[in-house]
Amino acid sequence: xxxxxxxxxxxxxxxxxxxxxxxxxxxxxxxxxxxxxxxxxxxxxxxxxxxxxxxxxxxxxxxxxxxxxxxxxxxxxxxxxxxxxxxxxxxxxxxxxxxxxxxxxxxxxxxxxxxxxxxxxxxxxxxxxxxxxxxxxxxxxxxxxxxxxxxxxxxxxxxxxxxxxxxxxxx
Length: 171
What we know:
By secondary structure, the protein is an alpha+beta fold. The chain has one domain (30-170). Helix content is 27%, strand content 42%. The protein has helices spanning 2-20, 53-64, 76-90, and strands spanning 30-39, 44-52, 91-95, 98-100, 103-110, 113-121, 128-133, 143-151, 154-161, 166-170. The strands form 2 sheets. A 6-stranded mixed β-sheet has the order 5-6-2-1-8-9. Strands 4-3-7-10 form a 4-stranded antiparallel β-sheet. The longest helix is centred in the first third of the chain and has 19 residues, at 2-20. It is globular, with a radius of gyration of 16 Å. The protein starts with a helix and ends with a strand.
């Protein structure tokens, strides 16, 4: 419940600013939220990447020289490929010194946000987790990336301000 409240509090200024001054890509802050949850029972890491949809669309179109529309169901496979490739290039994860492969699960659009979902299998235990996160750093140097990691019921968070990309967690 607190996580939900925290995420919405982060987005409130964006909603009011856009409602009043609907200039494309003009919001008061640029933030992404990456959540990693260790599911000990299934030996998986469940990962979600929350981005402002407008920013994600702009950077995907720019980097891949194409046009996309998150609202068009017929573009879902195209967006799956672009979003997967983009996140794979900008988010890396190691547990206990071992580089982990992110497996793309899918995406969804929710109001002003775009969620990309990934998982890592075969992770029975986690003592340390190192994240390298440069999501949307190629969009703006005002980007802030927040990460929440949950292992054995312990939640730790870290904030990366551009250009910093490394966050280390110990459990």
